[in-house]
Design goal:
- This protein is mainly α.
- It is built from seven helices and no strands.
- Helix 1 (6-22) runs antiparallel to helix 4 (98-118) and helix 2 packs parallel to helix 4 (98-118).
- The termini are far apart.
Length: 171
């Protein structure tokens, strides 16, 4: 997906977030940590993953704006250790209830959208505007935003549906 402007990106983020979040309306709170063989993540892990990534990227942004060196994905993990990074997200949010985690996720999405609102079109669509975006892929900022919000919001919807179908079938 290529966006023509900031508003298109924000509309897509909000729309895909809303559709993804709605899927959790019918997740039984007492089972949202339940692992099933057919789906690689629990609903808790899906929410923790998303909340973790959104917050991590906003930390990169704030650190760069503060003049600090940004080490991606984090000082503790290298790009070939993403599984361990994800596990750190799951652990960080493990003690939260479904409702609490959904609220944290909602607040993270709101902060994400507020951040995007403050960016200029040039910052969003021109490569190399942030040091932390300069990688082998050399993506402009909008691509980082899309790949860590819209894309997984959409990709996790079939997973959460499959998870729900399986737990309701096996009750």
């Amino acid at each position: 997906m290529n966006y023509q402007n900031k508003e298109e990106l924000l509309v897509e983020i909000k729309k895909s977030y809303h559709l993804f979040d709605q899927e959790f309306d019918t997740v039984p709170a007492e089972k949202f940590n339940l692992h099933i063989e057919e789906v690689d993540k629990t609903p808790q892990e899906m929410l923790a993953y998303q909340t973790g990534w959104l917050n991590l990227i906003m930390e990169w942004e704030q650190s760069e704006l503060d003049g600090k060196l940004v080490i991606t994905p984090s000082p503790e993990y290298k790009w070939n250790q993403l599984g361990l990074l994800y596990q750190s997200f799951y652990t960080k949010y493990a003690e939260h209830s479904l409702d609490e985690l959904r609220l944290l996720f909602k607040n993270s999405v709101n902060a994400w959208c507020n951040w995007i609102e403050l960016l200029t079109e040039e910052e969003l669509f021109t490569p190399n505007m942030r040091k932390w975006t300069v990688t082998k892929a050399n993506w402009p900022l909008w691509k980082w935003i899309h790949i860590n919000s819209v894309a997984p919001f959409k990709n996790f919807r079939p997973k959460i549906r499959k998870w729900k179908k399986n737990i309701y079938t096996n009750i």
